[in-house]
Amino acid sequence: MIYYRKDTDQIATIILDMKGRASNVINSEIVEAFVPLIRHLQEEKARGELNGIIITSDKKDFLEGGDLESLYHEDQAEALYKSSQRLKELFRDLELPGVPVVAAINGDALGTGFEMALACHHRIVLDDPKIKLGHPEVKIGLIPNGGAIIRLMWLLGIERTFTLLLEGRRYSPQEALKVGIIDELASGREEMMEKAKQWLLQNQGYRSPWDDPDQRIPGGTAHDSLLGHQLRLLTAKLSAETHDHYPAPRAVMDLLAEASKVDFDTAYRLDSRYYAKLASGEVSKSMISTFWFDKQAVRSGFNRPKGYGRFRPKKIGVIGAGQMGSAIAFTCIRNGLQVVLKDVSQPIADRGRLYIEERIDQYIERGTFQPSERQELLDNLVTTDQNDRFRDCDLVVEAVFENQLIKSKVTREAEEYLDEFSVFGTNTISIPISTLAKDSLRPANYVGIHFFPPAETVSLVEIVKGEQTTEETVARAFDFATIIRKTPIVVKDVWGFYAARVQNTFILEGIHLLQEGYPPALVDNLSLQLGMPKGALSLADDLGIELVKKYEDQAAAHYGSRYIQHPAATALQQLLDAGRTGEERKAGFYDYVEGEAPVLWSGLTEMYPTTREDYEREALFERLLFVQIIEAGWCLQEGVIKSHAAANLGSVYGWGFPAYTGGVLRHIHTYGHARFIQRCAELEELYGQRFRAPKYLKQLDPKQLGELTGLIDD
Fold this sequence. Notes:
Layout: E1 2-6, E2 11-16, H1 28-46, E3 52-57, H2 68-73, H3 77-95, E4 101-105, E5 109-110, H4 112-119, E6 122-126, E7 133-134, H5 148-156, H6 158-167, H7 173-179, E8 184-186, H8 189-202, H9 225-242, H10 247-259, H11 264-279, H12 282-299, E9 315-319, H13 323-334, E10 338-342, H14 346-366, H15 374-378, E11 381-384, E12 395-398, H16 404-415, E13 423-426, H17 433-437, E14 446-451, E15 460-465, H18 471-483, E16 487-492, H19 499-515, H20 520-530, H21 536-543, H22 545-559, H23 568-577, E17 590-591, E18 599-600, H24 604-607, H25 617-637, H26 644-654, H27 664-671, H28 673-687, H29 695-698, H30 702-706
Parallel strand pairs: 2-3, 3-4, 4-6, 5-7, 6-8, 9-10, 9-12, 10-11, 12-13, 13-14, 15-16
Antiparallel strand pairs: 1-2, 14-15, 17-18
């Protein structure tokens, strides 16, 4: 668990090595184990037999975060406050033994794990770009619970701390050094330990800034009029951006303002109170469930076909050097894969190389990559206009224009040089995989691998199984996605697959509000206030009116005479008849002028006069949300996706369903299952069949919605 040794210079080394675990984790077990150790260190100091402490790890990581499962199931704020205070006492005892303490960080230190490092007086990290450091808690609706906000405030100042915690980034060692949350880098473990020892011997009597009466918070406190004004502006900006759906960022801001005005111990208690309120709230529970447990389950192979060995590709082909293809190539390169990027001519392919070089330079500037890595990364890239360069590729991804003839042509040309084991993936968004596979030389090896723009940052990838795609091919595509650090969900080959199919219901409902007489600006503003990334009308323009109409037509063709077409289909056709196809043609629901912000088309109010002057905001919110949840329910019932985890992650990552809800299925849990089904019936009576809840949702066990993961049998 915890090992202790001391050298002749009276330097004690504490080695973390939790038995039975792949990683060291902060939990009640390790907190209890520290109690006698802290007492022993205090006794040694009292006898004059201790000059310093080094904390390090014997595992590949330093220390990971806390026990999220226990946290998820604890809903009593008082219990959460007490557990937070207990952890803080441990860290306080650690930094106040009367001797300097160094964290010698040999691997990942995230969340609560990094809090222990912050409680040390000095932080030295191995210079390995794979190591990740920092506080990503805000991404799951939480704030740090061991006093990190207070310590970071004293190290960086209020504004820099707020920005750092709001981003929730996992920093590489070089990035962490730049932002000032660590102090030194070391090239190897031996150098790290030697640097730690030397710093301890040279800094006897060292105190942290918050324990030094001569130190002040950098940049001032909220008492200062100028900073106080700036904090108010930041708070207003935060509210405008999040519409106050996310309590964690607001808690960080409020805590920083309050904590800067009081002494450290009082700030410590304030920190625990804010944490307890957040951790016992529904938003954090929903976000923990989806963004931690669901994500871990999916990435570990929750819905991956069983019985197939792990696929470990080394060389990837990408067809199409446009923005999507180049982004896919960059994502592969940064994860250690070799890439052949091909287009119709060498100059066009080289444009893709230029895009990748620019991305690498951006990452070097912020410290993710080192300048010395630039050439190494580029050495893994070959640009070409020749198909024979795909000869030894393990997998090829096609990312060309959305045209069946073009896709079939480039597929056949590339497949001639692939062996019988290679996988061919298409990045199509609207053409059925089974249709495209008919022109493939090896349809069993043909699969949809659907990335979402921008491909280098969006986590989700849809793995689409065609009629002839083998389970082994699906498993290989799944493994490829995890290797490039994506979250893959396996979906059925139907119109729009999963994400676009459900997203379309949101767009159509927004357009129908326009038909009902609601002002177009209201429709898009309501979408944003709800937490969607774009307004329904703006999103329709972004995708293209023709594509939105195509998805609706495909749905009608799929269900046949049973299908009642969405009333918004007529509006789509009217816009197309008027020659307004979307942003690409500079004319859709909006007008587009180069260099200016889009403006709603004035003809909209002529086509659909505004007749609704007042509205019930929550009722319209429900309509926009419920159509998405109901369609996701149909996808589950029809086997388009196989699990609640995939449904939730696909919704938040795939089309931007509000993250504070935890996703489409998780929102039913928050809303209440019985209440949700009843409300669906009311909306169906008012607005029609599209609000009919599928049998799958009606028959759900409400308890299942609150479980950390839920699987549907194949």
